[in-house]
Structures are given as structure tokens and as C-alpha cells.
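Entry type: protein chain
Record version: 2
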Amino acid sequence: MESALEQALEQARRAGAQRVDEIRLRVGDLSGVVPEALQMAFDALIVGTIASGACLAVEKVPARFWCRTCEIEFTPETIFGECPGCHAISPELRAGRELELASLEIT
């Protein structure tokens, strides 16, 4: 969270912002990040910054895999990435590990 907040504050400063009202993060289902822990860290880190009082919005990104055999992208039923068509385990994760700054609302 500290790195994401630093990035957000830097972008806000570059835009000449006086205040950050909202920070939106994209968090993948397989990122290992717990949204509640992000919120706790966010609340502690924004004190004394131009983001003090800002809201944290978390956009969940579902895991998506690619099956080379079936040539389809799919969201698996389990974390193992089993193709719904051929039931092969896919090693190709296309989305779901993100932890990225998606947008800011500034004034």
C-alpha cells in the first residue's frame, strides 16, 4: 500500500492537486492481497498527506487463464486454472495478480 500511495501522491503533485479525494486500485484475485489489510494500511498512511480523508476504492480483478488446446480465455472455478473445455491445467495466467493504481480523483 505504501508504494501505491507514493505513486498516487506523486501523480497528484504532478497534476497540481491540492487534495486527493479517492484512490482506486485494481487488485487481482490471485495477488495475495487482502482488501481489508489494504484499507487498514491506507488509513494509517494517508495521515498528514494531501490524501488525508480520501477514500480507497478497490476494484477486484478476476483470474483469467488461457488454454492453448482449446484456444480460449477463461475464469476458472478453482485457483488451479482448469480449463472448462478440456480440463487441462493452464500455466498461462492472463489476469488476476494485479496490484495497480487505476485512477485518482483530485481537486
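Comment: Residues 38 and 78 are 24 Å apart (CA to CA).
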